Amino acid sequence: RAIGAILDEIAALGMEDGSLFVVTADHGEELNEHGVPFEHGPVPYNSSVHVPLVVVGEPWVDRGARVEQPVELIGLFPTLVELLGEPMPEGFEGRSWTPLLREQPETDEAGTGAVADPIAFADAGAYQRHLRSIQDGEWQLVLRPPNRDHEKPTIELYHLPSDPLQLKDVASEFPDVMDRLGRRLSRWIRDSPQNVAPHTEAARKALEAMGYLE
Fold first, then answer.
1. Which positions ≥6 away from 61 have C-beta within 8 Å?
2. I need a surface site. Which of 9, 46, 57, 186 has the fewest CB within 10 A?
3. Which residues pair with 54 in a beta bridge?
4. Other CB atoms closer than 10 Å to residue 65's CB: what's the count?
């Protein structure tokens, strides 16, 4: 309703035509559902990583389209670039979700486009624990590394339609799903870049001003 009110005001100001609007968030928040109160960085559960995403603007996006499958925010920039018909700069990661927004079942040449590959990954690796997850819509698998309580990595599996808050680990009940998603997550970890580009001085100051650096 609030987003609709904003869009109505934009239309009343005559700014609707030729404009593309995106409303999203960088993260949600944990409220101690998984033993982490008032946090969002260290955990890849949906309370932290499943965020609102609204894209409005004809003719780029079909009015009223609703995308049910998960996507990754890292694909937002490639999506906007493709929608606006601009060349994609080098050095950016992520896959465009344009076919989903236009309800076109397209894939890339390798057959791993967003529609053909309805998988989303999350990496909570910048804190004291390095957790990763993989979600294919119905299932989410979470990989926890060894810590003071567990000498070996542990794997959790959640059935999202019946357990949207991810409170019941059903890993022991669905070994086939565990194997399928575990193998896919292992490949993603293996193929993911392990190094992050250093911050520029301007970026460091901006992050420091927001309280993310000390």
1. 20, 55, 83, 101, 102
2. 9
3. 23
4. 11
Structure token pair of residue 212: 């993310």
Fold adopted by 2-70+118-209: Arylsulfatase, C-terminal domain (3.30.1120)
Residue 36's closest CA among 52, 50, 25, 47? 47
Tens of pLDDT, residues 52-61: 888 888 888 8
DSSP state of 181: H
Per-domain residue ranges of the chain? 2-70+118-209
Q: Is the pLDDT of residue 112 over 50?
A: no
Residue 59: cis peptide before it, omega within 30 degrees of 0: yes
The token duo for 131 is 């957790």
What percent of the residues of the chain are helix, what percent strand, and what percent coil, each to the nearest 5? 30, 15, 55
